[in-house]
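[[Local backbone shapes]]
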Amino acid sequence: MPAYPAWDADAARALIAERAHLDGAMLPVLHALQERFGHVPREAVPLVAEALNVSRADVHGVVTFYHDFKDAPFAGRVVRLCRAEACQASGCEALVDFLHGRGVPLDERPAHARVAVETVYCLGLCASGPAALVDGEPVARLDPARLAALCEGAAVEAVREMVP
């Protein structure tokens, strides 16, 4: 599971400065901050606003609008389960029912949880669904056994080798 460093204003300024020149820099900046710190720290908002010459409200609005940006780090595994049409046609809703039966909530990151399962709509793995991103790594042709293994912390590579 990822371990994120503590807030470091100098590191944040460096990440922001590396991307501030880009067209539409706010999203790349916010993604870089989240990758580094596991979330977009509240302390980063004024730094981003100043560097990009926008208001703090503009930055806050973007952070709160996009559900990918988090306001607190999550130390557990993140499974992003695709629920788009192609994955629905190949059985992702049965996986959702399986998770519900095991008491795994969707689209929540409880502080005490070892795994968070989030809904996404299309990972581009349409021909090999149901699919998920597990800590950023794609896993295709999921079934309940493989999904359970991922939720219990099995290595992505080991699950990829399991026969679906």
About this structure: The two ends are 25 Å apart (CA to CA).
